[in-house]
């Protein structure tokens, strides 16, 4: 008995397959392009981006504190660490509300925390790379030196650095996220055109 696949002509339809392939990489490419443009806008308005980031951080911190307080009363019924969750939740709510009411002060505190992180992380990388001398340790030493310099520069320029630091970091992150999406989309396009799993040449085989 012979079996036929009635869907085969639909799969091999030359008008349908290119549309499917274009949708596979075109959507992520456009999304990456828009994300990259958003990153450029965020970099151009670093102070506005910094303020929005501080407000979002305060809102998230307050929301997390409320959830932690709710969890505290649930843990109390089951004999869990009630006071730990309760006091931690109250602290998160208070700090989050403080940042929401005074976003400039919260932004200044976030900038100091980032400066301390850059300095400590750079010092750790520089010291460990010099002590261990593993393969390509020079790159880690270079990263550490740059991080130390950035941390010192941010601390010396504080509170002026609070105006641009957070917004610049957020903008850079958004920009490179868009670049990564575009690169991934172009990789998918190249695979499809070279005979990937959904390409016409592969289906015909």
TrEMBL record:
UniProt entry tagged with the keyword Transmembrane helix: yes
Transmembrane segments: 29-48, 54-73, 82-101, 107-127, 139-158, 164-188
Statement: the UniProt record of this protein carries the keyword Nucleus: no
GO CC, any one term: plasma membrane
Key words of the record: Membrane, Transmembrane, Transmembrane helix
Descriptive protein name: HdeD family acid-resistance protein
Species of origin: Pseudomyxococcus hansupus
């Amino acid at each position: 008995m012979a079996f036929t696949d009635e869907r085969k002509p639909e799969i091999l339809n030359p008008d349908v397959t290119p549309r499917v392939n274009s949708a596979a990489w075109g959507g992520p490419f456009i999304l990456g392009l828009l994300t990259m443009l958003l990153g450029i806008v965020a970099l151009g308005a670093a102070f506005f981006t910094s303020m929005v980031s501080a407000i979002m951080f305060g809102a998230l911190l307050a929301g997390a504190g409320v959830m932690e307080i709710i969890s505290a009363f649930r843990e109390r019924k089951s004999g869990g660490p009630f006071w730990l969750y309760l006091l931690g939740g109250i602290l998160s709510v208070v700090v989050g509300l403080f940042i929401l009411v005074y976003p400039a002060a919260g932004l200044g505190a976030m900038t100091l925390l980032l400066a301390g992180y850059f300095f400590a992380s750079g010092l750790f990388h520089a010291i460990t790379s010099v002590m261990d001398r593993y393969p390509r340790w020079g790159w880690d030493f270079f990263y550490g030196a740059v991080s130390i310099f950035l941390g010192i520069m941010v601390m010396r320029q504080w509170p002026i650095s609070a105006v641009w630091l957070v917004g610049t970091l957020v903008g850079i992150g958004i920009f490179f996220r868009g670049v990564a999406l575009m690169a991934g989309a172009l990789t998918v396009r190249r695979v499809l055109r070279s005979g990937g799993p959904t390409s016409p040449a592969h289906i015909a085989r």
